[in-house]
Amino acid sequence: ICVQIKDPERNHHMDLPAVVKHMAEDELVGWAWSPGAGRTPAPGTQARFGELARAWAASGAHCPAPG
Fold first, then answer.
1. How high is the pLDDT of residue 64?
2. How many other C-beta atoms can be found within 10 angstroms of the C-beta atom of residue 6?
3. Is residue 20 part of a domain?
4. 59 φ, ψ to 5°?
5. Labelling 61: which of 3, 34, 49, 55 has CA 20 to 30 A away?
6. For residue 13, which phi and psi values (nearest 5 degrees)?
7. Which domain holds residue 23?
8. pLDDT (tens digit, 9 = 90+) per residue, 19-67?
9. What angle in degrees, to the nearest 10, is found between the helix axes of 46-58 and 16-25?
10. pLDDT at 41
11. Helical H runs in the chain?
């Protein structure tokens, strides 16, 4: 998933800052934390997810080794 998130051919041609902004601010992404009745929200908050995404990008946006 990490490689796909960073691949402009598979992420609607977003550069890394745009990906981070999308993760931190997009309403569709935010749905994970407010999914509606009968659904379990993602842990944490979108604000925290945005903080983690910014830290990941600032540290080089490395992906785990395959396998």
1. 94
2. 17
3. yes
4. -90, 5
5. 34
6. 60, 40
7. 2-58
8. 999 999 999 999 999 999 999 999 999 999 999 999 999 999 999 998 8
9. 160
10. 98
11. 2-6, 16-25, 27-30, 46-58
pLDDT at residue 10 is higher than 90: yes
- pLDDT (0 to 100) of residue 66: 84
DSSP-based three-state secondary structure for 26: coil
pTM of this structure: 0.87
Q: Do 64 and 2 touch, CB atoms closer than 8 A?
A: yes
Half-sphere exposure (Cβ direction) of 19: Cα atoms closer than 13 Å: 23
Q: Per the structure, how many domains does the chain have? A: 1
Record the tokens describing residue 31, joined without a space.
Answer: 């749905």
As to burial, measured by CB atoms within 10 angstroms (0-12 exposed, 13-18 middle, 19+ buried), residue 46 is buried
Radius of gyration for the alpha carbons in the chain, expressed in angstroms and rounded: 13
